[in-house]
Amino acid sequence: MGGATEPPAPDLDLAFEADPQLPAALRQAAGPWADPLQGAEPWHGLISTWLAALTDELPAALQAPAYSLGLSLVGDEEIAALNADWRQKPGPTDVLAFAAQDNGLDQAPAMPMPDWAGQGDGPEPLELGDIVISLETAARQAPEHGHPLERELLFLASHGLLHLLGWDHPDDASLAAMLVRQERLLATTDRR
């Protein structure tokens, strides 16, 4: 009865939002991943599993028993505005990640915490930041990549999570390594 055991999933405080202005057919095509009635439930278990799988690879400063992050599904118009404001690039993109633990943000003001933060019995979660995915762009890209919309959303979410955890791809070799790590995360999803 040998075999490796998965590390325990860390506690996760996940704020999830799917823009209610997204076309109903598009939200329906995304299934539970964009269903406002299910809220963060499908994402919560998935991201917790990914964080557990990544624990041993993380620098000590990012290893925590609890994490907090936001995940938003938006349309092309909203992500294009964010892309222009934060990256000075025109037009929509598929995913943006805003890392709270980025070294370049040392002089930024502290992130406001909700009134309930720190009042629970569990450990104070480490704030990772926010992932924003354009559901419209994901829906266009999925057939181009030869897989369903669900797979594209999970791929983009894993990409955003790795960015929140310090991964980057300034060159082709870094991108290739990041893509390999994403595929390993997605493989854990397939076993769930």
For the largest sheet, list the strands in their spatial order.
Answer: 1-2-4-3
> Tell me, what is the CATH class?
Alpha Beta
For the record, the count of structural domains works out to 1
| N-to-C order of helices and strands | EHHEHEEHHH
What is the quaternary state of this protein?
A: single chain
Task: Provide the CATH architecture.
Answer: 3-Layer(aba) Sandwich
The structure class reads: alpha/beta
Number of strands: 4
Radius of gyration, CA atoms, in whole angstroms: 17 Å
SS element count, helices? 6
Give the helix level as a range of percent: 40-55%
Inertia-based shape: globular
CATH topology: Collagenase (Catalytic Domain)
Would you mind describing this structure in some detail?
With 192 residues, the chain is of the alpha/beta class. It has a single domain, classed as Metalloproteases ("zincins"), catalytic domain (Collagenase (Catalytic Domain), 3-Layer(aba) Sandwich). Helix content is 41%, strand content 16%. It has helices at 24-29, 41-54, 76-87, 135-145, 149-164, 172-191, and strands spanning 11-18, 66-74, 95-99, 126-134. The protein has a four-stranded mixed beta sheet, with helices on both faces. The protein is globular.
